[in-house]
Structures are given as structure tokens and as C-alpha cells.
Design goal:
Layout: H1 3-22, E1 33-35, E2 37-39, E3 41-42, E4 46-55, E5 58-61, E6 67-72, E7 79-80, E8 85-89, H2 92-120, H3 126-151, E9 154-156, E10 161-166, E11 173-174, E12 181-185, E13 189-195, H4 197-200, E14 208-213, E15 216-225, E16 236-244, E17 252-259, E18 267-270, E19 275-277, E20 280-287, E21 290-295, E22 297-302, E23 305-310, E24 317-319, E25 329-333
Parallel strand pairs: 1-25
Antiparallel strand pairs: 2-24, 3-18, 4-13, 4-17, 5-12, 6-8, 6-11, 7-10, 8-9, 10-12, 13-16, 14-15, 14-17, 15-16, 18-23, 19-20, 20-21, 21-25, 22-23
């Protein structure tokens, strides 16, 4: 074979290779899937606003003194009665002041009695009696003042309840106003919330409102509603006494149903319509005869549904069961 015969053969091979590389790789054809659709539902006119659930009789106890913790008589979870001693501070200095004040009081009282006897005999002047009476009253006031200070060295329960938190240990130095013990009473629970002017317009004291907490539903009655809004936030404070169910513990997050409130999110979808990819959640939306994956920002779960904060509009159709669906897959909608 000569050179003239090789040239055409090589050219043909190169051309064939070039043609084979130019051919695009075709994507696999997805089969048509039969699906059922559900509509993303919008919230009712009565929306939900966040609230906090606490006991109506709750107190964080502190002292006006600065001192060292001498004894702690309770721990978290302990049940206590009204007036029970919970905590003691070192009070040696105050006890010394009390003895000195009581001695001064006793001396002033004795002097007053002597002047009073002399006055009866005409041996003292009215001004001397008045001065003795004033000294006696001042000495008695000093004793009462020291006793009042000593009372702050002993932290007692203002009502019967349960110790929810203890913020100090034996030997710790505490100052005035420092939280020491948080006590929760055994009375009824109450809800507190902050409302916009529009949300509060249709409410009044005495009205009953539904609420939810930890998946449980209940009813509460409004006991207080601020007349004027906060000058900075322009929001109004609400308090509502829990009527049912009984036995709810404090410290939980809740939500109250309020007429006219927009709520935290206007759309919800069934849990069965969700498609999870790692930490991402989405749904398949039916558009143009195909299933299109759309990622969502989810909110609170409500039974068999979940709130959608962003990514979906009320009334949009989503695929009820997206198992094995692919983004862009052709679909045919089955009748309901």
C-alpha cells in the first residue's frame, strides 16, 4: 500500500471519530407517573400568636442585703409551704447591732419612766418628759429597723409551691437584688402574649380564647389587656387565665388563637406531601404536566399537617405522595 492510499483512509477514520464525539449524550427518559394532588391550604381568619405559659403565682426571690450564704434548705423540685425557710445569709454584724439597739431602747425606756415619775411629783419639766419620750421612740425605731434588716437574711416562701430553680450555693457571696430562688405556686396557669393593635382590637377582658401548648389544646380567659401600646414597639400586653386543661406546667411556649390575626404563616401542607433531602424539606408542585421540586421553609407541626413559612402560596397544588418522583418528571393526575 502506498502513501496515496493511506491518506484517504486516515482522513475517513478521523472524520468518523469527530462525528462520534460531536453526538450529545441523551438524558434518560423519565416515565410518566400517576399522581394525586392536594391543595396547600391557607389559614383561617383567626390566626395564631405566640405566647408563654407560666403559673400565675410565680416569684424570683432575692434579698436587699450583701452577704455570704450560710444555709440552703431546699433544692430544685422541692415542694414548700407558705412561710417555710428556704435560705439563710450570715448575719453576725446585724445580730450585734440588734443587741446594741435593744440595750439603747431599754435604757431610753427606763429614763422615760423616771422622768414620768418625776413629772407626777412636779420635779421635772414638760420639755424633759417630751425629750425622754422622743428618745424612747427613736430607740424603739432603731430596734425595729435592725429587725427588718435581719428579716432579709432569711429567705422564706411567700406562698406554697415548688422550687423551680436555685441560683446560689452554700458559701457564695450575694448582693442586693441578685436572683436566689425561683418559686412556682400551685395555682392556675396563665398565658402572656404581646399583640399588635390590630390583633388586640377584637379582644376584651373576660373573652375566652383557644390555645395550644405541647400538642395539647385548651381554653383560656383574658384577665388583662393593656389599654395603650408600648411607646417603642406599639404592642399591647395580654394575660389570660387557663381554664382547661388542668395540670399544665409553667415555662412552656404556647400560641393563642386571635380573631383577625395573620398568624405566623398562612399556608400548610400534609406531612405526606413532604420530600426530604438531608436537612432540606420540599414538595413537588404540579406545573405544565410535570413535577417540579420546590424547597420550603417549614414552621410548626399541626397534627397531620405542617405550616409553611415560605416557598408556597395558598391554593397551589402539590403532589400528595412524592415517593420515587424526580424533578421534572412527567405526570398524569389521577381523579380524586
Amino acid at each position: 500500500m502506498n502513501a496515496q492510499t493511506l491518506i484517504p483512509t486516515t482522513a475517513l477514520l478521523l472524520g468518523a471519530l469527530a462525528c462520534s464525539k460531536a453526538e450529545p449524550k441523551q438524558a434518560p427518559v423519565l416515565p410518566t407517573a400517576a399522581v394525586r394532588l392536594v391543595a396547600a391550604t391557607g389559614s383561617s381568619q383567626d390566626g395564631w400568636v405566640p405566647a408563654s405559659l407560666n403559673k400565675a403565682d410565680q416569684a424570683t426571690l432575692s434579698t436587699r442585703l450583701a452577704g455570704t450564704v450560710k444555709q440552703v434548705h431546699v433544692s430544685e423540685g422541692a415542694r414548700v409551704s407558705a412561710g417555710q425557710l428556704l435560705l439563710e445569709l450570715e448575719a453576725g454584724d446585724l445580730l450585734g447591732q440588734l443587741k446594741a439597739a435593744e440595750s439603747a431602747r431599754d435604757a431610753a425606756s427606763a429614763h422615760y419612766m423616771r422622768i414620768q415619775n418625776l413629772q407626777a411629783k412636779g420635779a421635772s419639766t414638760p420639755s424633759e418628759l417630751e425629750m425622754a419620750a422622743a428618745n424612747k421612740a427613736a430607740a424603739e425605731g432603731a430596734v425595729a429597723g435592725v429587725k427588718g434588716q435581719l428579716a432579709f437574711a432569711q429567705i422564706r416562701a411567700p406562698f406554697a409551691g415548688t422550687v423551680q430553680r436555685r441560683d446560689v450555693q452554700l458559701g457564695a457571696f450575694v448582693g442586693p437584688g441578685q436572683p436566689l430562688i425561683t418559686l412556682e405556686g400551685t395555682g392556675a396557669a396563665e398565658l402572656t402574649a404581646s399583640l399588635s393593635e390590630g390583633e388586640a382590637n377584637q379582644l376584651k377582658v373576660g373573652r375566652k380564647v383557644p390555645f395550644e401548648v405541647d400538642g395539647r389544646k385548651g381554653e383560656a380567659q383574658i384577665t388583662a389587656l393593656a389599654v395603650g401600646g408600648d411607646p417603642l414597639t406599639h404592642r399591647r400586653a395580654l394575660r389570660a387565665k387557663v381554664l382547661s386543661p388542668a395540670g399544665l406546667a409553667g415555662g412552656a411556649f404556647a400560641r393563642i388563637q386571635v380573631p383577625g390575626a395573620k398568624g405566623s404563616n398562612p399556608v400548610s401542607v400534609p406531612l405526606s406531601a413532604l420530600c426530604q433531602r438531608g436537612e432540606l424539606n420540599g414538595v413537588f408542585v404540579a406545573e405544565g404536566g410535570k413535577a417540579h421540586l420546590r424547597w420550603l421553609s417549614l414552621g410548626e407541626r399541626m397534627g397531620s399537617a405542617v405550616e409553611v413559612r415560605a416557598g408556597l402560596n395558598p391554593g397551589e397544588s402539590v403532589i400528595a405522595d412524592p415517593t420515587n418522583l424526580k424533578d421534572g418528571q412527567p405526570i398524569v393526575v389521577q381523579p380524586k
